[in-house]
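Subject: sequence -> structure tokens, single chain

Hey, anyone have a minute? Need the predicted structure for the following. Not urgent.
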Amino acid sequence: MKSWRNTLHEVIFEADTPSGKSFDIALLWLIVLSVLTVLLESVPEFQEQFRVQFAYAEWIFTGLFTIEYLLRLIAVRKPLQYATSFFGVVDLLAILPTFIGILIPGSASLRVVRILRLLRMFRVLKLVGFLEEARVLQAALRATKKRILVFLSVVLALVTIIGTLMYLIEDGQSGFTSIPTSIYWAIVTVTTVGYGDIAPSTVLGQILASVMMIIGYAIIAVPTGILGMAMVKRSGTPPLESNDVSTQACPSCGRDGHDSNAEFCKYCGQSL
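Reply:
Had a minute. Here:
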């Protein structure tokens, strides 16, 4: 006979059972409605007309998410491990902005972070193949982080030098009033954003700006190539098929993404 904790875990964490799938689908709709409420509340016309309704709706959403978060901690045997996992942190961030908004006016708009909870959709709809592709991207980013860090260091040095040169060439009337402001211009130029709020007026400054623009196109291609090569290498092995990954969540830490034939959790070692 199942214990009440096992039953609670089955409903909240499992997507293969009818009760678990119904709970997850209801939760996804609740998340969508709460995010839409935050978006509509930012519209001045709606905020003025439905201020009270928005306030009631937000506290209802926050109350339901708070109860759900506490039930998740109760359902697992290692609540701290779940609380520090990705989804555990996202679940907590979904309810904190409402309480923080009481102390810091205006911060309640951060409630839109709840949209991250829609990532559970991949598990509910059994789109685990997408999760595997996400892991490939994550592995590629980790493998290239040192090269990208070196590249960003070179770019930082470049914009500092060119920004300083532009500060020496131009005058304050053109907008280059300080070295930090000139570095800001260099960053905007090298990233090909080009706000146009600051622009050189001398011939030498325009030549330097043209060189910076050309360099910008090359700079955009470098990190793309680094990451692309890493993803090609990581994709050398055949990706896991959807039926190779189980949607079962660990009863101890609440994490999922285990192999379909796994007998123990890959994160905490608990028997599945």
